[in-house]
Design a protein that fits this description.
- The protein is built from eleven helices and no strands.
- It is mainly alpha-helical.
- The protein has one domain.
- It is globular, with a radius of gyration of 19 Å.
Length: about 230
């Protein structure tokens, strides 16, 4: 079990360091009903990834030993491809010219983020599903689930591995909310400043995240395939 968790460290770190999720949480904490909104949004992500992880475990347990060996090879190639895609995405984010900001605009939110200013529950669920499925986290999550499914461990240990990945995917919602709840007004001002900084530097932050985790996944994929 310890060996499996050690293999999942890159995925755990990647899932817990998602700028888009942090911005979404900080926007919701500034909305009219912050705790309810964060609970619905983060709960949707939690439920979605839990279902995906459970389906992956069930599918993985149904294969025989020969197929399991092939699944391990496929996992290694998927991890390598994910890493290379992240590297390409990071390079594109660096070299691409950013769109011009309107004069006097200090904070220009993406369209999905603007929907979270005064959200209804249905809007929260919809944006959460889209964000969970189209940002790099889904590739990181499936990379981790692939390692869990390919590991020669009991089903209980696999369930724990997937649970760790699922919990890591919602840390971006849990930690800012706890900070918001316990620090009072000064802490909330810090969170607002953090949101503004992330929005202003979204391209640089996104590029850095993609390059760091792209390097990690690429190196690990090459080592696994070369071994």
């Amino acid at each position: 079990m310890a060996e499996l968790l050690a293999q999942l460290v890159p995925e755990i770190l990647g899932l817990a360091a998602t700028p888009a999720a942090i911005v979404a949480c900080l926007l919701l904490l500034g909305s009219h009903r912050p705790y309810r909104n964060v609970a619905i949004f983060g709960g949707t992500v939690l439920a979605l990834y839990s279902v995906l992880g459970a389906v992956a475990i069930a599918a993985g347990r149904s294969v025989d030993a020969h197929e399991a060996g092939e699944a391990t090879t496929v996992r290694d190639w998927i991890g390598l491809v994910v890493g290379l895609l992240f590297l390409v995405g990071g390079i594109i984010a660096i070299v691409r010219r950013p769109p011009p900001r309107p004069a006097g605009a200090s904070e220009q939110l993406p369209p999905w983020a603007r929907k979270l200013a005064s959200p209804e529950p249905a809007t929260l669920v919809g944006v959460a599903v889209v964000l969970a499925l189209v940002n790099p986290n889904v590739a990181i999550f499936f990379s981790g689930v692939g390692s869990v499914v390919a590991a020669d461990v009991p089903v209980g240990a696999q369930a724990v591995g997937v649970l760790v990945l699922v919990l890591a995917s919602v840390l971006d919602y849990v930690l800012p909310t706890v900070f918001y709840a316990v620090t009072g007004l000064p802490g909330r001002h810090r969170l607002h400043a953090m949101r503004s900084w992330l929005v202003r530097h979204d391209r640089a932050v996104g590029a850095a995240v993609l390059l760091v985790f792209g390097t990690m996944f690429t190196v690990r994929g090459l080592v696994r395939l070369g071994g």
